[in-house]
Every structure is written in C-alpha cells, then in structure tokens.
Amino acid sequence: MKKRLGIVMPMLFILGSAWSANIKVYPYDGANVLAGQRFDLRIEASGLQGNLEASAVLLDGQPLQGLTQTSQGVGQIEWTLRGTFIRAGSHTLTVSVTEGAGQTKRTVNWVARQNLRLPNPPKNVIVFIGDGMGWNVLNGARIIAKGYSENGVPKGLLEMQTDPSGSATVTTSSLDSYIVDSANSASSIASGQKVEVNALGVYPDNTKDTLDNPRIESIAEMMKRVRGASIGVVTNTFGTDATPAAWSAHTRRRGDYAAIADQYFKSPTPLDVMLFGGSEDFIPQSAQGSRRKDNTDWIVQSQQLGYTFVSSRTELLQQNTPAKLFGLFNTDNFPSYLDRAVWRRPEVLGNFSDMPYLWEMTQKAVESLSRNDKGFFLMVESGMIDKYLHPLDWVRGMFDVLEMDKAVSWAKEWAKTRGDTLIIVTADHAHPLSVFAGYDNSKGPGNRDAVGVYEKAGFPTYGDQLDPNGIPLPSTARTLAVGFGATPDYCETFGSREVFQPPTVSDGQGGYKANPQICSEPGAYLRVGNLPKDTSQGVHSADPIPLYAFGPGGENFRNTLDQTDIFFLMAQALGLNPYLEAR
Known about the structure:
This protein is of the alpha/beta class. α2 runs parallel beside α14.
C-alpha cells in the first residue's frame, strides 16, 4: 500500500525547565528527488531541556500524518516516516518546537521532479564506473593504448571516448566534505542525493545502529519496483565493496559487509545478476577466507533461490545465460589486469588462475539480464583502478582502465543496432595524478636522469608489442613518468613490479614509513610525502571526473554536471516517472 506525506495532530511533551533546541531534517534542505521516489523522512530535535508544550510538523502548511516518535536520550526527540514520497513540484516542510519561553522552527525546501514519458525511451541502462578514473588517469591510459604519430598527432581515442552522444565534466562532493569516497559518491550517482563519507544510500541519524538510517531509493531499485526491470552488478573488486553496494544496499557504514551481502538477496528489489571478486562475505564463518560471523552460505542459498552459481571463467563462459546468475571468482579482489593477462605470477594469482575478464563478465551479465523484456539496469565497475592508484601503482591502475575500455567496446557494439540502451561511462572520484614527462627505460628504474621533460620526453613506445587481447604490453623502451599530488613517504622507481609491493609499511609507532624492500631496489630513491604520518597510501582528490554517454538520452549529458545530475539525467532519458508508474 502506498504511503505519502499526509496529516498528524501536534504532539505534547513535558520535559523539564530551561530549553533550547537544534532541529535536523532529512532529506536535507534543497534536496531534489523524483516524484514518487521512495525515501525515509527523519526529523531530530536535540537540546530539549524545558517544559515542552507542543511540536508540529507541517508539509506545505498542512500537519503531517504517519510519523513515528522516538527518543534516543534525555532532551532528544525524533520523528521518522519510512518509505514515503511526494508529488511533483516544490514543497516546504516546517518543524516547530514550542515551550513557555518561545518557539524554535526549522524549514526545509524540496523539489520533486517529474519526467515526461518519451515516445521511444531506452528500456536498459548500463553504467560503467572506473573507480578513481579522473581525467588525468583516463588520458594516461589513452596515451598507453593509442600513442602518437611521429609528428605528434594522437593516433586515436579509447573506445569510451569515441563518438559519444554526449560528454561532460562531473564535479564531486558529499554531504559532509568536498572530498568524496566511493560509497557516498556512487550513492549520489545512484540516488541523486548527497550522503556522508562511508555511507551507502542513507541519510544521517543519531542512532548507533548503522543499518537503521533513513534510506533513499536508487534508480536501479526504482526501475525494478516500478517497471519490473532486472538489476545486475559486475565488479572486479570484492562484491560488497562500496561502488557495487551503492545501487541496492543501505547502511551508514560501508564496512557492514555481511549485511550488504544479505541485502543483495533479501531486499524487496534483489539483484538478479551478480559477478564479483571476493567470496568472503557470502560464505559461512566456518569456510576458509570467510569474514562473516554467522553460518549463512549464499552460495548454497542462492541456488535454492533459483540462481545459477559459477566460480571460474570456464564455468561462466559455458553458461547459457540464465536469468539469475551469481558468480564469485576470488576470495577477495581480482589481481590487476596485468597480473591476470601478462605477468601471471603464481605467487600473485594463487589458487585463482581462471578468472574472467571484465568484458566477459559484462557480456554474460547483459545476456542474462536481456531475458527480461521489461528492461534492465547494469552497473559494471573497474574497481581495481582505484585499488592500485591508492598504493601509487599507476601502471596497474591505467591498464585496468584499458580492460574496462574493452568492456565498453563490447557493450557499444551490442547496443548499436538496438536503440533501446543508454550507456554511461564515468568515475566516482579522481586521484591527484599527473603524467609530467617521459621515461627512458634503458637507463634503469628509479633514475631521475631518465626523466625527459618537454622535447626530451619524446613519445612513448607502447604498442610495439601487444598481449593476446590486443592491449599493449607494459614493458617498452619509453614509458611515462607519473607523479601523485598527495602521498606518504615512499621510494620512487617510476614503474611497477611483477609482484606488487605496498609503498609503505608500519613504522612501529602508529605511523608508516617507505617500504624498505622497494627502497632497496636498484635506482629507487626516497620521496618525502605531504600526507600525515599515519596515512599509508595516496588519497582521493577534488578533481573533476569524465563522463561519456551513448545511445538514446545520451545527448543530455553535456557541459559541467554535479554527480547527482547523473541520476536525474538517467531518469529523464528513461522517462521514469515513479509517481505515475508505480506498479
């Protein structure tokens, strides 16, 4: 049964003597939602110390109905309304708390947007997210993949940059900071709302329980609830990581991994296709590698729910596209593309030498989801870009961009003649990285004299050799010199190594120091960082991120956008109007 904002009589509280109040309301002041998009209303009044005579909550001047009142402690009152929505238009919510000495008011304004139902809207959406793929990371990957002619003319673009319907620069920020993490940034793309760092699809509240925070519905959940569409998530990270979780999980703490795994299957809009890295949150605590605290076994239970389960590339490619597909291909994150496709060191791959590539997972996900004639939403993440840029391994990070680009190429080709699929390629945040020179590998690693600036940079020679997938090999005569704007102390070698090493280790005093193993390599030299000593890796930046859109509705993605605009433009392209379409 639908719930919407209605009417309730003012409430009476008798609390004490002197009084002052602080009132918080979520959704926050200035929030935009879709008309009919479900959200939880949360109002919190604190600092109540006097004889409170009355309170009132008014929407557009009318008393509000259906609120549940609680108290988290002395001088605190909360009101919550779960799963509500508002009609199209501008709305004002006013909260007032009154005692003998006076009244405190808080007013917030919301706008509920309504989309036109277009004649031939797309019924499918595929969103590619290169985690941490800022403009400079993308450009570095393009240089590696395409290079330059002898006259300095770029030889081409990545597939994600070629012939888009629309393109844009996207700014990022969160409810509590202008530096975002993957959880709140992906949540903003998914829901159109600003949320706090480490939060997934929820607003703040004053309770200790991280799973009871007020929720906001994502576009994937809405498409399934309103239109009966299917939902798929593909990632090369562990499956309950922040970016994959943002589309269907809700928690204040992105580290609630077991609860996130449970929500994938138990929510009112469960995922239909899941192809992930880590199994650690889906297997019982008795199983090796599990980090659950209970005996839930989603590998077994998923099959009882009708999912086909696969655990290797071989098994995945043999599948005849079941409608419900669940794949776990590692205990934790995938190793990088280079580790899987080029170097293939046993000490890195371990027991997981048969992992699929991102383009293969994309293909199988699309084939499965396409069985639903009501459409689908699919998010594909190359999360290992970010996992390697944090420890300053730009080589692995940029080659993981190239793996995602092959997935984009497949999706564009699949969608080309259909006319019913919107494809978006973007990131969730950037890293402070820059390609600043060329590097002459013949002079050895870590040699500052091998760094060529301006005309001495010449042109990189990637592409002189290709791997079996047609991607350049990382070993070549002239490579890139890449720097990071925010780092701990580390030792520079201007490259990567076939067996990954973290840039720092514990200093035994609560901080971190440059990894002695790297520092002992020939040519390595110390670079003093600019981050606090308790920081072990590089961090995100406020730099803008790229966006490319393909297919119907893609032309609306242009100029400079906020990350929340991506949600509304996807809904606009779909003609998604949950207030009128509710099933």
